[in-house]
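fold-stage: in
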Amino acid sequence: MKKLILLAAVAMPLMASAQYRSEVWSPDNGDGTYTNPVINADYSDPDVCVGASGEDFYLTASSFNCIPGLPILHSKDLVNWEIINHAIRVLPPVDRYNQPQHGNGVWAPSIRYNEYNQTYYIYWGDPDLGVFVVTAKDPAGQWTEPQCVIEGKGMIDTTPLWDDDGRCYLVNGWANSRCQFNSVLTVREMSADGMRQIGQPVIVFDGNGTPNRTAEGPKFYKRGEWYWIMCPAGGVPIGHQLAMRSKSPYGPYEWKVVLDEGKTGINGPHQGGWIHLKSGEDWFLHFQDKEAYGRVVWLEPVNWTDNWPTMGTNVKNYCGEPVLTYRKPNVGQACPVQNPVESDEFNTVTLGKQWQWHANYQQTFGMPTPNGVFRLFCHKQSEDFKNLWETGNLLLQKTPADNFTATTKLRLSAKDEGQYGGIIVMGMDYSSLVLRRVGDQFELQQITCKNADKGKPETVKPLATLKPTYKDKVAYQPAIHCDIFLRLHVMYIGGKNADGTNKHEASVRFAYSVDGKKFTDVGDAFTMRQGKWIGAKIGLMAAEPAGKKVRGWIDVDWFRVTK
């Protein structure tokens, strides 16, 4: 393990200001061009706004039940992004979200800067509870506690618009699973501070019975005298992007399809944020659904034809196709290459911003230390435990690329029989490579679960027997310890779906080492599968059977993502 980290308070700001460049995906080509996706990770339903300076851009995305929630990413050029914050530390109501609530929680947020009170707002719909908002003066600083501003079921995908006279309007979609209708968009007036409803909803668009079914994810803008709603329609995997315009926030709106797959093979390009630069250029950030990898973020140029925004290239009848490589936005300055952080040395007393839990954080999940390790305590399983789907203390992050390797160095400290921990790729199916205490030794195991979301049991495959690195010499609650390096390798395998569309599948293989130099491949290949509305995630886990009196744990020295 690493030596004691001294002067941690000094080290943290230095690390926070360092620019991180990924080994596995960086969209900036270094020659004035970029290659999509600009974020090759699951930032589902992205939205973006221009900051108060006009030179900073802030992005947020759906976080559902993952905590901390509402990630805040920052960029100077819309191509190079870094994770700077999360707007939600605890998701209310606490009793509900202290347990995993897969697919619930934060749906399709919007981030906006209100110039009238110099405040940033993020709105989102919790489909079971209502419309929520948080605010901050600085996106990298402290955000307010979530506040419900409209109670009720079914309201999702909410975006505010502050008009030229300071009045505030809110557009939203509707979830059929909660209110038994969808494909419609509604607009209502809010108080000028955006904190309460003062008008009733008006249906401004209806996609029912048309190719624009599943109209949702609306974003609200004003350009000159025109009100604009940008929204996806047609369904997540195969849909398209609509632009709608009207002279009134309440419509009627005329619309056009302005972006679709065309001949590119980039399925369902839609739902995101429109940005206007000081240079006069317009751009659009949206997602592509890559199944097991989640919904990754693309950047498209926007041009105007007859006062309609045409997105991408090869525009025909106002509708463009996604670009793969294109010139970078003109922001008036050269910006350094940087990417969202993936690797973590655990060298500070704060957890890296890439990590999330599957429920509200509780202290017994784990804690950072000043010793250069993160301690993850073994989750105490119930008597009727079936699988990890209902476990909150999984320390996970998004997959960062199509092909990558994640390696960790850790120590399992087991005080009792059956305590185990290791590396995992988690989704509705999952597989992990773990060390488990068996008697006075350790057994390396691959634990796999198919249809975890359906409550199916795990299968356990023994792989090797390892001796302890050392044993406690004290008589009181002694533990045996084992140091090990664990690795998972993700490889894109592609393929075609039954309807001929591209399949985004990946194969996962595991390996281990006792010295960090020579790795041995072990276990069976595993086909990565997405979670509920999110991509598969990678990370760390520790658990133990019910009835144990003293917890075991893993001390994680580092977690590194490489080619």
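fold-stage: in (second)
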Amino acid sequence: MKKLKISELVLRDAHQSLFATRMLTSDMLPIADKLDSVGYWSIESWGGATFDTCIRFLNEDPWERIRVLKRSMPITPQQMLLRGQSILGYRNYADDVVEKCVERMAINGVDVFRIFDALNDPRNLIVPIKAVKKMGKHAQAAISYTISPVHTIEGYVELAKEFANMGADSICIKDMAALLKPYDAFNLVRALKKAIDLPIHVHSHATTGMSVATLVKSVEAGADIVDTVISSMSMGTSHSPTEAIVEIFRDTEFDTGLDINLLLEIADYFRAIRPKYKKFESSFVGADARILAAQIPGGMLSNLENQLKEQNALHKMPEVLKENARVQKDFGYPPLVTPTSQIVGTQAVLNVLLGRYSKLTAESMNLLVGKYGRTPAKPDPELVKMALKGLNMDKPIDCRPADLIPNELESIEKELKQKLGQESVPIDDVLTYAMFPQIALKFFQNRHKGPVSFEEPASAKASPTSERSASNGHAVYIVNVDNKEYRVTVREEGSVQVSPSKQTMNTAVDKNITTKKAEVVEAPIAGIVLKLTKNNGDPVNAEDTVLVIESMKMELDIKAQSSGKITYLVDAGASVEAGQVLANIS
């Protein structure tokens, strides 16, 4: 009898897909013992967006999360999602950073590493797989599944063969956007089983309504392991219910042997805590066939909704879904999984809000010129030209991107010590800083306060214990004094920054005694000021980058439209809204 194995995703992908990865560790621990008793092949509890969200929104140390979860579930292997050479961030890192990250992840409690590359470029898995094998852990290489004119079963089989030759212990079909149809899954799994002698693991989201049937046909074709989520956290943008899959195969040759009563107890627990995160819940609760065209993965949907809310543009979601498909084609049909899902999705948002390709994010340019790896098809040549110009490059990259990145761990550690004013820094903090430098510094300052609480009503959002405070510490108000509007930013420590609103700034410009009218530099979109590229009073020329804003986890250069001397009205780290005046050039 061939026993089907189950991986449970409730502690990572389920809440990443359903409510933007906001589940606190404190809500995982009370049920950890029962999860550990089920007999799962693995429990996915780390990686993906959890690391970013922990330090950006939850004020939790992600390294402590995996340590405490491993202690609480010593029997069941703990699984993580690793983005190949991008690790957990949004760029490719030097090999020494990748190797040290994998080492620390294994030491802290990760047993199974699901490793993927957003472009399916096998060159980006070479170092991560070697590093996992060196630590004696399970290296699972994932195929990022998508549908396009350039993706075929034969191509996926050849990719799996390359992974097997690299030393992968198993192969995962990663259907992040719920595009894998049941009979296509049957044919793909069967082809993989004929071509390679490794366990096949199938991961399929429920967003389009096909996932249960897809898993059933995959198992019939020979899949060894499938991903599921406990029922009270399943379906919608999440995954197929664990209990349903267990019962479908009960008393068959694939019987999982898992205890349905224990699973129901676990389901009751998560049913009780899920309402706490209601404000982050995705509105995609059923099946949405639009995703068959837009190809947006489940985790991206809930994050995209939150991002559009931040831009006061949630009503534009249908336009963004359509534009997303256009951008994916223009960018060379990259599978939509982090970071390419975020890059393509954010560019689609910018195209809808600001005009098609009027602004390219730094990450979009890097993708177009090959800094992430080889795209499945050639990107639009005009966009490549724009990206090369924006990056001051002569031609795209055609080698393994990491070959061009010198070892950087030592310099990153030195930089962090200088910024913190410390002679030594824990290696895990160094790696946190390596992946999210701006956010990490804020986290290190606030870590002593402990995790945020979601027990408070939404009206308390700007209080010191709220998520907003933990992530950026700013509340913004428009104050009218003598018919002049001022934007008042109240920081967490209580200091106040006052800057003129757009209307007031224009009035001030009109009254300028010089004959030259000043240029107002505005934020095209809501975000956080990452850095000021000039000093107050410096001369600037048209098309010079004067600020860099982080919006929707992507970096956006803000350029001057005319020449003159610049006066900044915001500081690095400030939260800004769309249309807010950031600087004056006169």
